[in-house]
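Structure (tokenized):
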């Protein structure tokens, strides 16, 4: 039986109230998931909030590395994840054992890794970063100190360009969603909407970043759309963000950029969309699945996330 949204929502609200649970969700989740979230944010905001939040039960609506980050920061809390199979192509592009071997080739380098990594990679990392603070994190490291930047080659080369640093070695990983945008289709949209500003996430390929009026993280793009005088935007990032854009700026118009090999008008992260109201309700009701990380791995991963939060 397909249950209706209103019933599911009221069941979820009731479970949250009874259990004192908090739901955190990324902007890329489905609109109906965003609607039941107590806290909605990008990767950085979610990491910071997970550390601050004093609820004993946190349900993380997003991909599994995000829920793991919350568990690393708050081992005493119950961190629930409705869909543990929700992985991330970027995190999967960096296997911890292979990364350990790579790191051995650069013994003098400091490791900066995106939070979109497994706990195993975080344990090999000195400072984590997200797309919101990657520049700040890299700039906090003395210019003469060589760096390994992992796992996103696009964000890494964008940061290399911004800082002009030649001493950054990149791991060759990528996010399947952000790499799939079509330059041709974006240019076509731009010719149909000449006044529109093109806003791009830095996980996109460099030839896409080159045509951007603004490049930034999910939170930075949202801020830009509010502050910039334009009324129309071509949005070159995961399409879940459109929900928040239309909510915050109902008078403006947002056009999703399409991927290369699809008739689809927008580009979705299939992992983020795996969280549904049904599996979220079941997870909250049963308090399962729960994130479990062995203490040695958790403790090894903690330092890199805390170092990032200290820089923010
Ligand atoms: P931000 O939330 O840092 O913008 O990252 C985007 C992303 O791909 C999250 O998985
Ligand atoms: Fe991972 Fe890309 Fe999905 Fe973000 S959008 S969760 S980086 S696959």
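Design, position by position:
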């Amino acid at each position: 039986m397909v249950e209706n949204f209103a019933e599911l929502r009221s069941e979820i609200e009731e479970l949250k109230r009874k259990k004192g649970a908090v739901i955190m969700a990324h902007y890329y989740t489905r609109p109906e998931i965003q609607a039941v979230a107590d806290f909605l944010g990008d990767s950085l905001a979610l990491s910071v909030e997970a550390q601050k939040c004093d609820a004993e039960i946190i349900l993380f609506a997003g991909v599994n590395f995000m829920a793991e980050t919350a568990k690393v920061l708050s081992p005493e809390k119950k961190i629930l994840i409705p869909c543990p199979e929700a992985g991330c192509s970027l995190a999967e592009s960096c296997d911890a054992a292979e990364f350990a071997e790579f790191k051995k080739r650069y013994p003098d380098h400091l490791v900066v890794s995106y939070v979109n990594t497994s706990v195993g990679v975080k344990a090999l990392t000195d400072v984590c970063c997200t797309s919101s603070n990657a520049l700040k994190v890299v700039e906090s490291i003395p210019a003469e100190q060589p760096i390994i930047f992992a796992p996103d080659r696009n964000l890494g080369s964008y940061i290399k360009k911004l800082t002009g640093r030649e001493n950054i070695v990149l791991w060759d990983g990528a996010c399947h969603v952000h790499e799939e945008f079509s330059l041709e289709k974006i240019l076509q949209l731009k010719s149909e909407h000449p006044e529109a500003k093109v806003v791009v996430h830095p996980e996109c390929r460099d030839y896409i970043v080159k045509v951007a009026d603004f490049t930034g993280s999910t939170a930075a793009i949202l801020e830009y759309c509010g502050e910039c005088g334009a009324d129309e935007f071509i949005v070159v990032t995961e399409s879940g963000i459109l929900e928040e854009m239309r909510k915050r700026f109902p008078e403006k118009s947002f056009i999703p950029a399409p991927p290369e090999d699809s008739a689809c008008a927008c580009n979705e992260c299939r992992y983020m969309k795996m969280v549904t109201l049904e599996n979220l309700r079941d997870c909250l009701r049963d308090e399962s699945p729960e994130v479990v990380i062995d203490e040695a791995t958790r403790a090894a991963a903690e330092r890199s996330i805390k170092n990032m939060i200290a820089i923010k």
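Reviewer-requested clarification: The mean pLDDT is 95. Residues 42-44, 116, 130-132, 175, 203, 217-218 surround 1,3-dihydroxyacetonephosphate (ligand 1) (CB under 6 Å).
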